[in-house]
Write a structure and sequence with these properties.
The chain has 146 residues and is an all-alpha fold. It contains seven helices and no strands. It starts with 15 loop residues before the first helix and ends with a helix.
């Protein structure tokens, strides 16, 4: 079958400037994780984004995140099992809501609205194209986190 969902197959950028920008983006995501305990700010997204940015910029930071006591469980749970159907629907509603609000209330350009619509369709397709995690994997992960 190949590699698990979201596995890193040496996709680190060769350009040092790009690696630097990706590293800083990873640090920003990592710095925002403590704020994720506030309502509406998801921990899952920030952890996966930070791991993604580090996977493309720093083997050391990516390894630290994957092997971290807390972050590692989130990353490996996603890689091995994918997303639950509930996670997919929450993501789809959040993406649709934020893009719809932006398109109708903040943007007055029809070309930009069209681009936003295309991005919306791609983002929702991407979320639902990820593997769906079985219910027993969710229960097992919840027990491992506690």
């Amino acid at each position: 079958m190949g590699q698990p969902v979201g596995s890193v197959a040496s996709r680190k950028s060769k350009n040092p400037l790009v690696r630097g920008v990706l590293f800083v983006l990873g640090l920003i995501c990592l710095a925002l994780i403590p704020l994720s305990y506030l309502p509406g700010i998801p921990t899952f997204d920030l952890v996966l984004l930070a791991a993604f940015f580090f996977s493309m910029s720093s083997d050391r930071m990516h390894g630290w995140m994957v092997n971290h006591k807390y972050f590692g469980k989130i990353i490996n749970g996603y890689r091995e099992h994918g997303l639950t159907l509930r996670m997919k629907w929450v993501a789809a509603v959040g993406i649709t809501g934020s893009i719809a609000i932006s398109a109708f209330f903040l943007v007055d350009n029809s070309i930009l609205r069209t681009i936003m619509g295309v991005v919306l369709i791609y983002a929702v397709w991407f979320v639902f194209s990820r593997p769906t995690r079985a219910k027993d994997a969710v229960v097992g992960e919840a027990q491992a986190l506690s």
